Amino acid sequence: MKTKTDVDYLFEPRAVAVIGASQNTAKIGYRVVENIVRRGYKGQIYPINPKGGEVLGLKIYPDLSAVEGDVDIAVITIPARFVFDAVKECAAKHVKHLVIISSGFSEVGNAEEEREIAAYAREHGMRVLGPNIFGIYSSAVSLDATFGPGGILPGRVAIITQSGALGIAMIGKTAAESLGLSVLVSVGNKSDIDESDLLEYLANDEATKVIFLYIEGVKDGDRLVEILKRVTRNKHVIVVKAGRSKRGAMAAASHTGSLAGADEIFDSIMRQCGVLRAENVQEAFDWARFLADVPFPKGKEAVIITNGGGIGVMTTDACEKYGVDLYDDQAVLKETFAPVMPSFGSSKNPVDLTGQATAEDYERAMEAALANDDMHAVLSLYCETALFDAGELVPVLRNEYQRYKGKKPIVFSLFGGEKVEIITSKLRKEGIPVFADVYDAVSCLGALYRSWHNSNTPADEPEEIQIDVLAVEAILDRAREDKRGFLLAGEAQQMAKVLGLSMPRSILARNLDEAVHAAEKIGYPVVMKVVSKDIIHKSDAGGVALDLVNQNEVIDAYQAIMRSCREYKADALIQGVEVVEMVKPGVETIIGARQDASFGPIVMFGLGGIYVEVMKDVAFRAAPISRREAHAMVSDIRSYPLLLGVRGEKRKEIDGIVDVAMKLGALIDRCRDITDIEINPLVVYEHGQGVKAVDVRILFQTTREVR
Ligand code: ACO
Q: Is 22's C-beta closer than 6 angstroms to any atom of ligand 1?
């Protein structure tokens, strides 16, 4: 028998108290007791109300201390102002979990009391779900302790929602869609228990095969990433996140920050974790219902069977969009399907049975595809025709589905009039994956393939990257003595050295003579940049000169820089200029890392120049990252083919980018007082010729925080 953890008792309580249980059928305190009783909860039920009496045949206890047995969870349905006292009573009774339905806490500005309750509960060995939630449903013990409409079907899908109202609406919706649930829970204000705690339980819950998370905002994202990576190894995890807009992105401290719409980060990190992101709740429901019953495919190649060329073509498009490969061995296709179709049909994939196809033709074609081990999934499409009654298809689809559902993924799409719609809805109610739109059907198959790919990819751990944290902190500390939260050019050079990044050669020159010598030493062409802690935006101040090819140009540029900088800021303390090797052109990329408000340390990569400014072609990962994840991040950007080499160009130094990404990931993870790192540009040369960090910018807190 498995030993129960903390959270187990939340989902498998042996006894439930309802504090605020009411005889008044209009009250939430009545609805909760009613749902618990009607659902057939297997444990003890203790309604609590100082008025006493009976509700639904159960004795009402005046208070918790009057209850003789132990209580695992207390569902609290009394006004906010009485909640803390009730929590104290729960502590005295050694209750394990508090499910606080009551509103009136941080969501209306009463954060202080909410914090106090959560802290008090933890001190007394209790965990808090809520407040401001609709309750909890758990099929393990047939518990519906919500004030929802009832009628939840037991099943294999767990739903965790941040929105209570949406959660309640989902109760009815799941029942209408015949979607069976193992768990339904809202996290509300997340004063204590959050999605990560719930995922810990669900990871080991045998009844749960699919987890659907509705999220609005992420707190404590590094923990969520860690647990999601684990859970997606053996469960399908689907997420819908509201708020795709840029609002909520952290204030941009650097260029990298300004690019980082919160949603793009969320999207990249969910992919990193193997989570399937659905566009909306309907898509999530479609996926959840499909994934709950379907086996993993044995391979990548699907077959489309259709009676209409048009929907066949559309489905082919949808397969490309959702990453579903089509079986393509023409000889085998002909051999398999020619005997079961009219002579004018097409056995190419899509297999077109033509508008003349009968229900028997469908049956024979599906049977041929389903029985062939090299055809790994079947998409069966039907366009209504006048030649046979669509109703004749029902037993065919049902039989084929029942026979093969444990063995091979099958999805159906039926398109037509009222009769077809009735059939579709009837088969869906039976749990058969039938869709009106081919895109919806293929989207389900695409989700399955992504999940399959994820679970087939061996788990990997970021390799240990050696970072000399003491040397890093020493550089930061010297800047802090100067009351700076950013590095000057020379310090950035030192940092690059500590990290083992290749930067252009550079020499600090304090006067014109030194500048000329430095240029001679480095070799032409050179770049010259002003060095002053009072001038951060050097180009704006006229403090940068590029492509200086001889001594005269160096002299002219030096004088011009000094003049413009004085005009820009008369009292600026100018230490001199930095003379830098002018780097050879290559592919300009941008690579950065920062502390994200939601996910903690993250790494970012994109193509530089106009790509980053206009096209925002960037990808993110939660740090630290493994070599494989770093590669995945680099290949995620739309312009990745440029790095692979287009039009006869050679492949670029992708491994060099990966190395830099891993180093920045390790640095931002280990040194949490560094808030932003940006290398812009990181110039990438042909394979074998390395990468060069032209400009390294680092922002950090002026007070130290070492982990
Ligand atoms: N112990 C036990 N019972 C008590 C106690 C106590 N300490 N104090 C009061 N009670 C009883 C009351 O006497 C009453 O019983 P009665 O009907 O026999 O008189 C019962 O508990 C409920 O108390 P009321 O004062 O009647 O409160 P009411 O039921 O109107 O409201 C509630 C309580 C539902 C918790 C309300 O304050 C609230 O927060 N509502 C919002 C809930 C919500 O929406 N949560 C988020 C869900 S998610 C979403 O967004 C949909």
A: yes
Q: Whose CA is nearest to atom 20 of ligand 1?
A: 20
Least confident piece of the model among 190-194, 352-356, 369-373, 518-522: 352-356
Atom of ligand 1 nearest to the CA of 79: 37
Rounded distance, CA 123 to CA 630, Å? 41
Q: How far is the CA of 48 from the centre of ligand 1 (A)?
A: 12
Q: Ligand 1 within 6 A of 79 CB?
A: yes
The DSSP output letter for 346 is: B
Cβ 13 vs Cβ 97: under 8 Å:
yes
DSSP code string of 401-435: HHHHTTTS-EEEEEE-SHHHHHHHHHHHHTT--EE
* Ligand 1 center to 45 CA (angstroms): 18
Distance of CA 7 from the midpoint of ligand 1 (Å): 25
- pLDDT value of position 1: 41
Q: How far apart are CA 663 and CA 466, in angstroms?
A: 8
What is the value of pTM for the model shown?
A: 0.88
Span 296-305, mean pLDDT?
94
Higher pLDDT, 524 or 356: 524
Atom index in ligand 1 nearest the CA of residue 86 equals 7
Separation of alpha carbons 699 and 675, rounded Å: 6
On the CB side of 608, CA atoms within 13 Å amount to 19
Of 49, 75, 137, 146, the residue with max ligand 1 atoms within 8 A of its CB, to mutate for a pocket test, comes to: 49
CB 344 within 8 A of CB 328: no
Name the nearest CA neighbour of 94 among 119, 121, 60, 133. 121
Asked if 604 and 259 touch (Cβ cutoff 8 Å), the reply is yes
How many angstroms separate the CA atoms of 378 and 302, rounded? 6
Do 101 and 134 meet the contact criterion of CB atoms below 8 Å apart? yes
Q: What does the pLDDT look like over 393-435, one tens digit per residue?
A: 899 999 999 999 989 999 999 999 999 999 999 999 999 999 9
Question: Is any ligand 1 atom within 6 A of the Cβ of residue 74?
Answer: no
State which of 18, 25, 28, 136 you would mutate to test the pocket of ligand 1, scoring each by most atoms of that ligand within 8 A of its C-beta.
Answer: 28
Q: Are 182 and 154 in contact (CB under 8 A)?
A: yes
Q: How far is Cα 99 from Cα 74, in angstroms, rounded to an integer?
A: 6
Pocket test for ligand 1, best of 27, 132, 191 (most atoms within 8 A of CB): 27
Q: How far is CA 415 from CA 345, 352, 422, 645, in A?
A: 20, 15, 11, 44
- Rounded to 5°, the CA angle 698-701-702 comes to 110
Q: Tell me: pLDDT of 99 over 90.
A: yes
700 lines ligand 1 (CB under 6 A): no
Ligand 1 and 161: CB distance under 6 A: no
The DSSP symbol for 607 reads E
Q: Does the Cβ of 20 fall within 6 Å of ligand 1?
A: yes
- Of residues 217 and 431, more confidence is placed in 431
β-pairing, 73-76 vs 15-19, is: parallel
Q: What's the gap in Å between 119 CA and the centre of ligand 1?
A: 22
